[in-house]
Specification:
Largest sheet: 9 strands, mixed
CATH topology of one domain: UDP-N-acetylmuramoyl-L-alanine:D-glutamate ligase
Helix content: 40-55%
Number of strands: 9
Cofactor: Mg(2+)
Structural class: alpha/beta
EC number: 4.2.1.93
Distance between the termini: 87 Å
GO molecular function: ATP binding; ATP-dependent NAD(P)H-hydrate dehydratase activity
Bound molecules: ligand NPW, adenosine-5'-triphosphate, magnesium ion
CATH architecture of one domain: 3-Layer(aba) Sandwich
Radius of gyration: 25 Å
Keywords: ATP-binding, Lyase, NAD, NADP, Nucleotide-binding, Phosphoprotein
Shape: globular
Pfam families: Carb_kinase
Length: 373
C-alpha cells in the first residue's frame, strides 16, 4: 500500500514537472525549432517531386480550347457526343448518375446508363435527362441454368446501341458480382471490336486488373485509377509497390507494359501517360475529398476524348497541339475541368461542398476557359 502511494506521488510529480516544462517559453521554443526542422526535412524530397511535376505540366486550358467544338447550328443531335455509362447496381446508384450527368453538363448531347434492374428506377428518378437501360443482372437474380441465355440477351440489348456511342465509361458503381462482371467483360470485347473508346473506372478497374487482356494493346482504353486502384494495378502488372519518388517514370512503364493504354493516375496532381509520354495537370482543385469526384472525372474524360478524336480527324494533322493522342488529350481536359469546377464549388460551399455542387460548376468551369460564343 505504502509502495503504491509512493509510486502515485512520483507519477504526480513527473506530471507536474512536464506541465511546468510545457508552459516554459524555452521548452516551447525548442519544440518549435524541432517542428521547423521536421518540416524542412520533409519538404526537400517533396519540392524535388514538385520540380519534376512542373517540368511535365501541360497547358490544359489550351488543350480544352483546341478540342472543344464550336456550337454550330448546322450540327444535329448526337454530334457533340453520345456517351454510355455501364454501372449502377443495388448498392451504388450515385456513381453512374454522377458520371452520366457530368457528360451532359459538359456538352454531350446524349447520355445513357446501362445498369441493373434494381438500380434503374432510382437512377431515372434522379434525372429525366438520362436514358436508362435496366439490362444488367446480378447472380442473386439468375439461376445457373439461365446464365448463358441472359448473357446473350444483355449483349443483344447493348449491341443495338453500341455503334452509336462515341465512348463507354465502364465501372462507376458497377459492383463486383461475378456474373455481372462476366457480362461486362463481353460488352468490353464487343466495344473493342467496334473501336469504341472505353474509360474504365471504379469496379471496372477491379475487373480489368484481374483480367488485363480485356484492355492490353487497346490504344482507345483509358484507365482512371484512384490511390487504391493504382496500387492494385502496380502490384499486378509491375509486381512492385507504388513509387512516389519517381511517379512519372513508374506510370510510363505501367502504361507501356499494358500495351499503350492511357492511364490517368488521380491524386494531388493528376498524371497521365500512354506509355510514350507523361503529362501532369496541377491546376488548383479543392481540399474537399467527398466521394463521387472520380465519377465526374470519368464522364468528363469520355466527352473530351470524343471531342479530341473529332478534332484530330477534322484538323487532318494541322492541329497545333503537340500531343495527337485523343485519349491523353481527353484525360488532360477532363482532369482540368473537374479540378476547376471543384475549386469554384469550394469557393461557394466550403466544407459543405458535395459532388452535386461540383457538377453544378462544370458549365462555368468550361465557360471560363472556352466561352460558348
Ligand atoms: N455515391 C456513390 O454511389 C459512389 C459510389 N462509388 C463507387 O463505389 C465503388 C467502390 O469505389 P471506391 O472508390 O470506394 O473504391 P476503393 O477506394 O478502391 O475501395 C475502398 C475500400 O472498399 C473496398 N471495396 C470497394 N468496393 C468493394 C466491393 N464491391 N466489395 C468489397 N469491397 C469493396 C476496397 O477493398 P479492396 O478493393 O481493396 O479489396 C477498399 O478497401 C465503385 O463502384 C465506385 O464507383 C464511388 O464512386 C463514390 C461515390
Ligand atoms: N489529394 C488530392 N488533392 C487535390 N485533388 C485531388 C486529390 N486527390 C484527388 N484529387 C482530385 O479529385 C479527383 C478524383 O480523385 P479521387 O482520388 O477522389 O477519385 P475516386 O476515389 O475514384 O473518387 P470517387 O469517390 O468518385 O470514386 C482527381 O481527378 C483529382 O483531380
Ligand atoms: Mg472512383
Amino acid at each position: 500500500m505504502l509502495m503504491k502511494d509512493c509510486m502515485n506521488s512520483r507519477l504526480l510529480l513527473d506530471c507536474a514537472k512536464s506541465c511546468i516544462l510545457a508552459s516554459s517559453p524555452v521548452f516551447r521554443r525548442q519544440q518549435f525549432l524541432i517542428r521547423c526542422l521536421e518540416v524542412s526535412i520533409d519538404h526537400r524530397p517533396h519540392s524535388r517531386d514538385m520540380q519534376a511535376l512542373r517540368s511535365i505540366e501541360v497547358d490544359s486550358e489550351s488543350v480544352i480550347r483546341a478540342i472543344t467544338p464550336a456550337l454550330d447550328p448546322t450540327r444535329h443531335k448526337g454530334q457533340a457526343g453520345n456517351i454510355a455509362v455501364i454501372g449502377g447496381c443495388r448498392e451504388y446508384t450515385g456513381a453512374p448518375y454522377f458520371a452520366a450527368i457530368s457528360a451532359l453538363k459538359i456538352g454531350a448531347d446524349l447520355s445513357h446508363v446501362f445498369c441493373t434492374k434494381d438500380a434503374a428506377p432510382v437512377i431515372k428518378s434522379y434525372s429525366p435527362e438520362l436514358i436508362v437501360h435496366p439490362v444488367l443482372e446480378e447472380s442473386y437474380n439468375v439461376g445457373e441454368e439461365n446464365k448463358r441465355s441472359i448473357t446473350s440477351k444483355v449483349l443483344a440489348e447493348v449491341d443495338k446501341w453500341m455503334e452509336r456511342f462515341n465512348c463507354l465509361v465502364v465501372g462507376p458503381g458497377l459492383g463486383r458480382d461475378p456474373f455481372l462482371l462476366d457480362c461486362v467483360s463481353e460488352l468490353m470485347r464487343h466495344a473493342r471490336q467496334s473501336s469504341i473508346p472505353i474509360v474504365i473506372d471504379g469496379d471496372g478497374l477491379f475487373l480489368v486488373t484481374n483480367n488485363l487482356d480485356l484492355v492490353r494493346g487497346y490504344p482507345l482504353a483509358v484507365l482512371t485509377p484512384n490511390v487504391n486502384e493504382y496500387k492494385r494495378l502496380v502490384q499486378k502488372v509491375l509486381s512492385s509497390e507504388v513509387n512516389d519518388v519517381d511517379a512519372p517514370q513508374q506510370l510510363l512503364s505501367l502504361a507501356k507494359k499494358i500495351g499503350g493504354v492511357t492511364i490517368l493516375r488521380k491524386g494531388n496532381s493528376d498524371l497521365v501517360s500512354d506509355g510514350d509520354t507523361v503529362k501532369s495537370v496541377n491546376i488548383y482543385g479543392s481540399p474537399r475529398r467527398c466521394g463521387g469526384q472520380g465519377d465526374i472525372l470519368s464522364g468528363s474524360v469520355a466527352v473530351f476524348l470524343s471531342w479530341a478524336r473529332q478534332h484530330i480527324l477534322a484538323a487532318d494533322s494541322n492541329s497545333n497541339l503537340s500531343c495527337k493522342n485523343p485519349t491523353v488529350l481527353g484525360c488532360i481536359a477532363g482532369s482540368a475541368i473537374l479540378r476547376k469546377a471543384a475549386s469554384l464549388a469550394f469557393l461557394k460551399k466550403k466544407r459543405s461542398t458535395v459532388t452535386g455542387d461540383i457538377i453544378e460548376c462544370l458549365g462555368q468551369s468550361l465557360e471560363d476557359i472556352s466561352p460558348a460564343s
